[in-house]
Amino acid sequence: MEQDLTPRLIKELRGDRDYKSISKEVGISYGQFFKLENGYSKLKFEEFIKICQTVKSLDLKNIFKKIMCLELEEFTQAEFMERYCTSWGEPSKYVLKEKLGFTPSKWWRLKTGQSRLTFDDFIKLITSCGCDAYGFLSHFLPEDVISLYTKKENDFFENEMRIMAAFPEACQITTIIGDNSYVNADVDNKTDLLRSLSKLDHDKFNFLLNILVKNNVLYLNKENGLYEKHQMKIYLKDQNIDTYETMKSISKFAMNSQERVMSDPEHDRDRIKFAFGVSTLTREAFNEIRQEIIDSFHRINTILENDNLKDNPQMELAIFQMGIHFIEEDFSKSKKSEI
Predict the structure, then answer these.
(1) pTM score > 0.85 for this model?
(2) Rounded to whole angstroms, how far apart are CA atoms 256 and 317?
(3) What's the number of domains the chain is made of?
(4) Which domain holds residue 257?
């Protein structure tokens, strides 16, 4: 990625400015900037920040807060590493080795400032333990450029959010498939029953069901004739599991996606709340619930780390289904997406 994406990123940030003017603004030599943009030198995290700060339209504090939930006062490697580890936790040994390619000594040098964090390692770090590279880079690069270098995982989950944003009535299908009146009904044609319970007319039901299946949100279980939702799972390979960090990242993505759906006043709010297990509450209650969730995952992660997997080298842990709660205030109006 470093050989192609970073030079393209720097070129986008430079814009119409020539090397002489931009290098003066950043505080590096003309030759050094030329090397960075043409891939002859590796871009460091703090150099990336300096270049971003020359673009007046970029609100870096807001970007870091929105994407990584980090309140940074100064954009330095030391502060970033401190706030990042406080917010997202330390990467496990498994993540360091398999996802980041870091040795424990390199991680220690980066935290203590004895080694400089490259932009490439910064992207790998936030992708593995904090957010997705796609979401972060979208503030600096055009979407068609980002898609050449990054890949979104768990597409079926994001597809569901996009479908709900464009077609809120699809909630009337996805909600019912887990209801006992559908699952336990003693009828031959479960599809006709699903349409009846959804209270959608024949054509609209078939249209929305086709979209949900085509985008891998639902699938037909041929054994029982029921439509079911795809489920995300975490595969546990050894005791060094980054379950806590992974769950925080997925939960944050879910909350952000659902907030966009909830913010459109034209949507059927009661139906969406029921579909997503969403309820409105005060900020004080929200903070208390958030702390309970964090504490529970700390306890769960401790159990997982202490679990002896010698007799069971590979097992599955289904993602815990929990209600996502919102504070219903200051929602910005979201634009309907196109499928």
Answers:
(1) no
(2) 24
(3) 3
(4) 233-318
